[in-house]
Design goal:
By secondary structure, this protein is α+β, with helices and mostly antiparallel strands. The chain is about 35% helix and about 20% strand. The protein is built from 3 helices and 2 strands. It has helices at about 10-15, 25-35, 50-55, and strands spanning about 5, 40-45. It has a two-stranded parallel ribbon. The longest helix is centred in the middle third of the chain and has 13 residues, at about 25-35.
């Protein structure tokens, strides 16, 4: 079975302000891999500057 993790959101999803590889998206991926005991592919579709006001009009 192949597991895919797609993260969508704003600059927090991108990892702005975090050291490379330490934002919540890669951390969650590693947690998921430990839980399912197999590789989890990841696609980060976060957008810097996106807010709920910009995405939901």
């Amino acid at each position: 079975m192949v597991y895919r993790y797609v993260a969508i959101g704003d600059s927090l999803t991108v990892g702005t302000g975090a050291l490379l590889g330490t934002g919540f998206v890669p951390l969650y991926r590693r947690m998921a891999e430990m839980n399912v005991r197999t590789f989890v592919s990841m696609e980060n579709m976060g957008v810097n500057g996106l807010t709920s006001g910009k995405c939901c009009r």
